Amino acid sequence: MLVKMGISFTLLLASMQACSSVAKQSSSVEPNSMRSGVIEVYVSNLNFADARLWTLQRGSRKRLGEVTGKTNKVFVVEWPIPDELQLEVNLVGGGSCATPPLMTDPGDIIDFQIPDQFIYEMGRDCQAF
């Protein structure tokens, strides 16, 4: 099952073996395994600016990490139970925004793409041009 939201915010269930956007990267989350207490977040930063990322969950904000402009990075996040996930993006030298909430289960793989240009304003959802 593939669900698309916001600015290229897609959820790929770990049971899916192939996806063109992440086909070159192998997952450390094994489908139907005991390692299902985590999620993986694949981030492709197509913007020239570096991006700082946070997860937003149940009123808490946790730093995910930083992705240099025009690069990719994979983050592993502890995710013991099904819950809504939001990602906050803060472009270095630019604005901030957050993705719409996405119901996420342990073992899921999130493919998140930061476009080269997008509209950002804190308190609002990220939107591509």
Helix fraction by DSSP (H/I, runs of at least 4)? under 10%
Major sheet characteristics: 5 strands, mixed
Shape: globular
Strand adjacency order, main sheet: 1-2-10-3-6
Can you offer a commentary on this structure?
This protein has 129 residues and is mainly beta. It has strands at residues 2-5, 9-12, 38-45, 51-57, 60-67, 72-78, 83-91, 96-98, 102-104, 109-114, 118-119, 127-128. It has one domain (2-16, 38-128): Immunoglobulin-like, CATH 2.60.40. The protein contains no helices and twelve strands. A hairpin with a 3-residue loop joins strand 1 and strand 2 (9-12). The protein is globular. Residues 1-25 have low confidence and may be disordered.
Can you summarize this structure?
The protein is mainly β and 129 residues long. It has no helices and twelve strands. The protein has one domain: Immunoglobulin-like.
SSE arrangement:
Blueprint: E1 2-5, E2 9-12, E3 38-45, E4 51-57, E5 60-67, E6 72-78, E7 83-91, E8 96-98, E9 102-104, E10 109-114, E11 118-119, E12 127-128
